[in-house]
Amino acid sequence: MKKAKEWAKATKKKPPKPRPPPAGVLTPGQRESRAEDAEAKATVHLREALAMSIWGEAPNACIHSAYYAMHFIAVAALFRAGGVGKRKDVPESHEHVIQHYAKLAETLPSPFTESGKLLNRARSMRVEADYFSNANATWHSGPHGATATEASELTAQASSFISAWLRRWGR
Predict the structure, then answer these.
(1) What is the pLDDT of residues 97-134, one digit of tens each?
(2) Alpha carbon distance 84, 46 (integer Å)
(3) CATH of 28-136+143-168, one of 1.20.1530.10, 1.20.120.330, 3.40.1190.20, 3.90.1300.10
(4) What is the pTM of this model?
């Protein structure tokens, strides 16, 4: 009898947890605030990338920072363009940020038109630098990771990418 009661207690259906209320649409003020935050993050990452590029001894970290500088400016651009989806927000997924940013960039004049491809290439380089390198920059499948030259080139591209957006926003 005791085991039957324990079994009944253990298998008793529990009431569902209350769900949080659905998130509302972001207001223009909220989007601008988030764009400013993303712009500030981009500036920090760009400063780090520039310092590492000059130093020349940490190309993988330099690539990482250059990509994130570009990523956060793309996030800011999406917020300032009105956001995406029902909430007028920006997706958390890097892939989706790149997709939405590329669509936005295609509608803009040069130098923005091709910047979606540049952001995608920077992400690929960042993934390679972050996940496929080791202390010797070699694996059993051959050399991996970034060179100082690649890091310097991507940092210069990131700087131009960010400068173009800052000029567009009057900064």
Answers:
(1) 999 999 999 999 988 989 999 999 999 999 888 887 55
(2) 25
(3) 1.20.120.330
(4) 0.82
